[in-house]
Amino acid sequence: MATALFLLVGVVPLALAGGHDYGAALSKSILFFEAQRSGYLPGNQRVKWRGNSGLYDGKANGVDLVGGYYDAGDNVKFGLPMAFTVTMMSWSIIEYGNQIGASGELGHAMDAVKWGSDYLIKAHPQPHVLYGEVGDGNTDHFCWQRPEDMTTSRYAYRIDQNNPGSDLAGETASAMAAASIVFRRANPAYSRELLTHATQLFDFADKYRGKYDSSITVAQKYYRSVSGYADELLWAAAWMYKATNNEYYLDYLGENGDALGGTGWAMTEFGWDVKYAGVQTLVAKFLMGGKAGSHASVFGKYQEKAESFMCSCLGKSSQNVQKTPGGLIYKQRWNNLQFVTSASFLLTVYSDYLTSARKDLHCSSGSVAPSELLAFAKSQMDYILGDNPRATSYMVGYGNNYPQQVHHRGSSIVSVKVDPSFVSCRGGYATWFSRKASDPNLLTGAIVGGPDAYDNFADHRDNYEQTEPATYNNAPLLGVLARLHGGQGGYNQLLPVEVHVAKPIAAQPKPNPVKEAPFAAPVSIEQKTTTSWIANGKTYYRYSAIVTNKSGKTIKNLNLSVSKLYGPLWGLTKSPSGSYGFPTWVSSLPAGKSMEFVYIHSASPAEVSLSSYTLA
Questions:
Q1: How would DSSP label each residue in 428-451?
Q2: What is the dihedral of CA 360, 365, 366, 369, to 10 degrees?
Q3: E strand spans, 245-401
Q4: 561 DSSP β-pair partners
């Protein structure tokens, strides 16, 4: 019988008693980026366990490349995923800046974009020169050091006219163009600077074509461009049009849609490598917003492919995405959640585009209301935040049961602020990597790789496929969580949206809790269905059961009877007598506290009752 972590809470958490705290999740998801910062940290740095790092990046190449983000749990700065991260954070703000502002997080979100875009400006010192990597994965992964102690190579790798990289240049152009929209009102001069770089980079990507990992070969093992560069050229053109309204880029999309695959590829994934679903979604927006002009028929083909992606996620297409038994989109074992967050973002914005256009989604199984897309995106977020068979939150620091041994150098090694003693390259593996204990530094907001195809997850530091976080896992979350927290913006999302710099909203006083009437029994047990899915012709249900101590005393030796259970149960330990009690590491349930256990089967709720207990 499987056993999961036991949850002890002062009150039943929001995730269990009517929904998740998407506002708190949004704040944490943005805070994560501060833990990934490279360079000189600012005075308003909130992740205090980090220090300055990578202060000589680029020096060996005669260029200043200090700053930017470490991509994941290592200390390399990879340009392609970093640029995609900036693009997706910017797109989140462009679509849902009002909602992010209402949560008091717009300043932090814009700071997160600017930390990335400032670096991308440095990485583009000449019109046709772009630095795409600092450090290399092979030497970096040989060591386990916090970034403040790095002794590994910080050599920088670039693309240029003789060594092109249209995918890298195209994605960086997209990031610069999207960020220019974010800063158009708040910092017009900076916005124009970004747009100048974006224009040059698009020209570079288009005129000097080639895959970046053929020029920066050290990236092949880590961020190989499997899809090539055609998708990035279209993606960049879409962002350039969005940022400039220049018909040249609209024509580029119309005239190259067939040749570059935008109208042909029906995708079931979207991420740092494959951008087709993203550009198809943007072009569909242009079409529904009346911007297609003479390219309406071609843009219609883009939209067909965008809708194919949405339908495949919903399970209403002839080519559907795989899902776990718990209902999570599943693409691959290594860092699967990157695909979940990116797909959820596209579903969210497309739902709002359809609502603004007063249209439905058309799938092979029939018409689908826009609300259904948003509901599915919400189900994916809820799974990540804890509504899953393991009752595990895959966002570090959110909820009561989240990964404790994250595959992350900075998080897993004592802070340089606490112990400045040097951590050597291999010594870090011996002392910290192999340590079977929780991380000394909480990597708040990080979305780890996540569970496997069967909803299983092993919280071990060496399990990098499941416990390593990444910036591009988090970037799309800004938009999805802001939309779920703040609701629809009340405006037509097919029209241009201005990002206003809103002042943080003052915290509202919490209402006094409503006192409940005395409850006769010392323990209450409430069950509810949290999700369901169909597999092999059977409908499976995930049930959540909340056990609350209503007495004024601590409960010990709790024994529950669970009958008519036809599937796995998590969160209780089964005794030889057949009853269920606390996990072995928990001995009591204090007064007023609650615990959760979950189970899955293809039947009505199991019968759960109180067998015995003692009051301390």
A1: HIIIIIT--S--SS--TT-B----
A2: -30
A3: 322-323, 329-330, 361-363, 366-368
A4: 609
Q: Please choose, from the candidates 200, 220, 202, the residue with its C-alpha nearest in 3D space to the C-alpha of residue 211.
A: 220
* Interacting residues of 515 by C-beta distance below 8 A, sequence separation 6+: none
How many domains is the chain built from?
A: 2
Tell me: do 608 and 474 sit in the same domain: no
Least confident of 8-17, 22-31, 218-227, 334-343: 8-17
Q: Which two tokens stand for residue 338?
A: 């990157």
- DSSP H helices in 471-614: 471-474, 477-486
Q: What percent of the chain has pLDDT over 70?
A: 92
Verify that 475 and 542 share a domain, yes or no: no
| 257 close to 298: Cβ distance less than 8 angstroms | yes
Confirm if 472 and 271 have CB atoms less than 8 A apart. yes
pLDDT value at residue 169: 98
Between the two ends of the chain, the Cα-to-Cα distance in Å is: 29
Domain harbouring 544, CATH code: 2.60.40
Average pLDDT over residues 6-15: 28
Residue 57 vs residue 488, higher pLDDT: 57
- Same domain for 92 and 29? yes
Report yes or no on 446 lying in a domain: yes
User: How many whole angstroms from its chain centre is CA 22?
Assistant: 13
SS3 category, 420: coil
Structure tokens at 539: 């409908």
The pair of structure tokens assigned to 66 is 């200090």
Dump the DSSP string for 39-56.
BSPPTT---TT---B-TT
Q: Cα(285)–Cα(301) distance, rounded to whole angstroms?
A: 13
- Report the DSSP beta bridge partners of residue 291: none
All residues at 6 or more sequence positions from 288 whose CB lies less than 8 Å from its CB, including other chains: 303, 353, 354, 356, 357, 359, 494
Are 376 and 14 in contact by the 8 Å Cβ rule? The answer is: no
CA 445, 175, 479: angle at the middle one, nearest 5? 40
Tell me what pLDDT residue 500 has: 54
The 10 Å CB-count burial string (b at 16+, else e) for 378-401 is: bbbbbbbbbbbbbbbbbbbbbbbb
DSSP state of 59: G
Question: Residue 464 in contact with residue 407, Cβ under 8 Å?
Answer: yes
Tell which residue, 201, 190, 195, 162, has the closest CA to residue 80.
201
Q: Are 38 and 69 in contact (CB under 8 A)?
A: yes
pLDDT at residue 488, as a whole number = 74
Q: Which domain holds residue 357?
A: 22-486
Distance CA 127, CA 215 (A): 17
- Cα separation, 149 vs 76, in Å, equals 13
In the chain, % of residues over pLDDT 90: 75
Cβ contact 201:80 at 8 Å: no
Provide the annotated active-site residues: 407, 459, 468
| Predicted pLDDT at 355 | 94
> Cβ–Cβ contacts within 10 Å for residue 436, how many?
7
Residue 479 placed within a domain: yes
Residues 98 and 482 sit within 8 Å (Cβ to Cβ):
no
Q: Is residue 603 part of a domain?
A: yes
Q: Could you tell me if residue 594 is inside a domain?
A: yes
Q: How many residues does the chain have?
A: 616
Could you give the CA distance from residue 460 to residue 444 in angstroms, rounded to a whole number? Answer: 17
pLDDT per position as a tens digit, 563-576: 888 888 877 888 77
DSSP string, 186-210: T-HHHHHHHHHHHHHHHHHHHHS--
